[in-house]
Design brief:
Helix 1 runs parallel beside helix 2. Strands 1-2-3-4-5-6 form a 6-stranded mixed sheet, sandwiched between helices. It has 137 residues and is of the alpha/beta class. The longest helix has 17 residues. It has a single domain, classed as 2-Layer Sandwich (Transcription Regulator spoIIAA), CATH 3.30.750.24. It has 4 helices and 6 strands, in the order βββαβαβαβα. The radius of gyration is 14 Å and the shape is globular. This is STAS/SEC14 domain-containing protein. It comes from Fulvivirga imtechensis AK7.
Length: 137
């Protein structure tokens, strides 16, 4: 199996808690969350991701990498599931690969933030998530 060691593409956002990169070759938007998150950070960053996603005309896939998230963020889970995901789907999101953090509290928050639709597939490995997204149209 090929090891995917780096994200190729254009950096769209670099902040203390989030980095967003777009790869036009695969049409994947990569969202790398970093450190402790809270409701305000997640809502602000989520709105930025929505706007960046809308700017990528052919993009329907996101890799949401939570491996570096530390601690719970359950106070933003309901907003993520009930408001953010529906807006993203309306904007054209079809496939959302979510790599969970090893932090159990961050993982539990992520699980409770999943939408009622079947758009999300979860992973423990970056390589598996990228391979899955690359297999999607």
């Amino acid at each position: 199996m090929n090891q995917i060691s780096e994200i190729k593409g254009k950096s769209l956002l670099r902040e203390k808690n989030l980095e967003v990169t777009y790869d036009p070759d695969t049409n994947i938007l990569f969202c790398r969350w970093i450190g402790f998150q809270n409701k305000e950070k997640i809502m602000t960053s989520g709105k930025k991701i929505l706007e960046l996603f809308k700017q990528q005309k052919n993009c329907a896939k996101i890799l949401n990498d939570n491996r570096e998230v530390t601690g719970p963020w359950q106070d933003a889970a309901e907003w993520t599931a009930k408001e953010w995901f529906p807006q993203m789907e309306k904007a054209g999101l079809k496939h959302f690969a979510w790599i969970f953090s090893d932090n159990i509290f961050a993982e539990l928050s992520a699980k409770s933030a999943q939408p009622s639709s079947d758009i999300v597939t979860t992973f423990k490995s970056f390589n598996e998530a990228v391979e899955w997204l690359n297999s999607k149209p």
